[in-house]
Design brief:
The structure holds three protein chains of three kinds. Chain A contains 16 helices and eight strands. Chain A is α+β, with helices and mostly antiparallel strands. In chain A, helix 3 packs antiparallel against helix 4, helix 5 packs antiparallel against helix 6 and helix 5 packs antiparallel against helix 12. Chain B has one domain. In chain B, helix 3 packs antiparallel against helix 5 and helix 7 runs parallel beside helix 9. Classes of the chains: A alpha+beta, B mainly alpha, C alpha/beta. Chains in contact: A-B, A-C.
Chain lengths: 396, 343, 214
Amino acid sequence: MTTTQPPGGLPEVEIDPAALRQLADARMNIELDTGDMILNLGPQHPATHGTLRLVVRLDGERVIAADPIIGYMHRGYEKLAEYRTYPQITTLINRIDWLSSFANEVPFIHAAERLMEIEAPPRAEYIRTILTELSRIATFLLFLGEMGLQVGAITPAFYGFRDREYVLNLIEAVTGGRFHPNFNRIGGLKDDLPWGFIAECRTVMAKVMESCDEFEDLVVGNPIFQQRTRSIGIIPAALGASYGVSGSNLRASGVDWDLRRDGPPYLVYGDLDWKVWTHPDGDSFSRYWVRLQETRESARMILQMLDALPAGPVMAKVPRIIKVPEGEAFVNTENPLGEMAYYVVSKGATGPFRVKIRSASFSNVSILPWLLRGCYVPDVVTILASLYFILGDIDR
Amino acid sequence: MSAALAVDVGWGTTTAIKTLVVLGVVPLTALLLGYIFLLKMMSHMQSRLGPMDPGGFHGWYQLIGDGIKFLQKEDIMPAEADRKVFALAPAIVVMSTFLVFVVIPAGPRMVVRDLDVGVFYALAVSSLSVIGVLMAGWASSNKYALIGALRAAAQLIAYELPLVLAVVGVVIQTGTMSLQGIVRFQQDGAIFGFSGIGLPLILTQFVGFAIFMVAAQAELTQPPFDMPVAESELVSGYMVEYTGFRFLFFFIGEFGTAFAFSALAATLFLGGWSIPGVDGTAADVLGPIVLVVKVLFVAFLMFWARFTYPRFREDQLQALAWKWLIPIALANILVTGVLKVAF
Amino acid sequence: MSEATAEAPTWSETGSDSLARLDAELGDAIVDRAAMAGDPVVRVAPDAWRRAAIACKEVVGCDYLSFVSAVDWMPAPIIGDEGSGDTSTPAQPREQTVGLAGGSTRFQLLACVESTRSPFRRVILKCDVDDAMRAESWVAVYPGADWHERETWEMFGIAFDGHPSLRHLYLPAEFEGNPLRKDFPLLAREVKPWPGLVDVEGMPGGADDEEAAE
């Protein structure tokens, strides 16, 4: 089971030669190669956002080939999910993308609710959307700051963290947890909004808009930043889609696709008046720019939702012991990092039979062997920063 | 300096005193710059406070405490490092810093040695640190250190040229390479007959000043030119294997050289220790204070740029030096020469 | 939504359209079909796995790969004591079952592709994998399947013909076994049994004491 060749050798198949060239480039057997320098970025390295190991073969400062090695944070969630009940799994999947943890729970809860044919009350759906957008703002503010840091400007990172604190305080006020809220329940939410939340949220959204303007001045307008990020790491739209790159990364390549608007309707995005931002270039700069605009858009969406929040219960009538009927459900949502999906197979027990977790960063990082060929070492850091992956999301 | 002392103590004692003063002044200046700009100014610009506890008042003791901490650390050397070269590299970097301080005047009679080729000497000696950087990178037997050292070598050599060319304009205008002479020129000069503020050369050599500041930033491997020490990629570049007092040497070298270059800029372009109209004993006393104030102003500009800009990529950095700074500096020399002869 | 054919499966408009195109392209290769929230779930014959991918990409217009994975339909072995009243591990089926669109083998490949153009299309593909544990690779059609197939290989043991380099993705190179198979034990439960429902004592000075006092 440890061979690198499939047993029996490679059979004759018809493969498109262009694809084959691309695959041959992506294929690496690094340990046998000599001559050029092999540099190991990580697993402990400031540029790799966590325990990602990137083995690059360098010729001077140019990357000839790159091979990401993941799995340092693999926690076996899919196996664990087979031995847990549905409420217990909610606690687990919070920790997949830990910067926007509320958003991870939503597709799973929706899958379970669909199988049980329960609908959460409208107020619960609104609050879920508000919290999802708040976690989107929180994670994007961090991105806006730390991409500046990766490119060399130390200061934006502090501004990003500072402004993110306001949003995390809001999430903590509602759910009790800054990072791992564990607030969704099958059928609704654990609790209602606290008193004074709506007014505080409006104030914070105004601060978020100001902060976005600050980032636009400090980072986007900076000529050195533009020089470091324009035309670096261009992902062609069709190739990106076939690799599974999703979210802001794909929208920055000009693909006008957002699951909140285009996919099967979920949460309350259909009731809101909002815009999908794309950028035609597909380079690192456009990925930064798209996320900046999406942060502003999320703030506007939250203001609309605060105005339109319906009254009512936050939890539907749900049996005490949750047994989900037999069936299969597939729900995907537009998470901050990209498309996150859960394929839940249920056999009528209190826990699922099989859960397939499709996480966005897994596919976003799989394009790295193709993307990093021919770029400079500093550009590797820029590209890694602009793709914005979270290790928990890659490794699950 | 022997003239400043009332008693003639002979050459040996004078030299000893001068050596001790320089040895004491350099770490002190590194400390001063490090505390004011790195710890406090950077913190406030990033909406945080910086150290507040050590020493009670706004953490003034922080760097001294850091220095003592470094001194008592274990001396770790990588197993495969080249021991002699590894140990010698920080010494060379710091040595070049000390050597620059030899010609910087702090008063009309307060200079270790006022060489006739002061400017030439200062620039030549400051480029010795490249050797130290290369030695550090190679001897560390670490790929990251090697990449950092090679980047540093390319960068430091590339930016020597704009640095020197920017200063040539000053030399043409003043007619002397001695730093004291340049300060005197600025003190005694006049702007169209108005001699109230002398003639700080920044007014006529503003292009030279700008190029000098950019090139000095690159010589110090500070952002936006800190590719050799790119923290988010190479994690300290050529210094990555250095700990303890060897790292302290690099630190003193970095901030001491920052002070030295700021002092050079203040002397060449802002008038150094001089205030027009103040001479004699008053200048002896006020000179160093005035110099430090001007140095702090120049350093403020340097560090402000450091905290604001992202870093250039190596090839963009080289393009900036060769395609932009050198031609502009050459043009500056041409114009200065023409105007000097014409007027 | 069950796999029993009690009710006729209903597809949405685009779902029906996608299904019609697949029918036209693949014909007999489609062994079974079902509907899941309006989207087609299509089970294809094992030798048509790559043809199905090409059909989805070119004929139906699904240019976006969501994931490629597998399902192990064997029931999990029972852990812990049967009659102890331990309700912490969810009760699972006792015999091998099948899911939507049927199936006849223990392992089934599962994949989902979507379309980034409007109207939004989604096709979920399934395929039986027999005991030889080999399947065709999708890498030539969707390059992103590279990593998904590596993960499926190391987690289930299904080898993919045509994959450029099938090696471990998450697990160390010397790892033995396929973790996501049902007969691979979840080690934590073997090493240390779950304590089950624990009787939680009330806080001192709280409601319990007051009730006892009355």
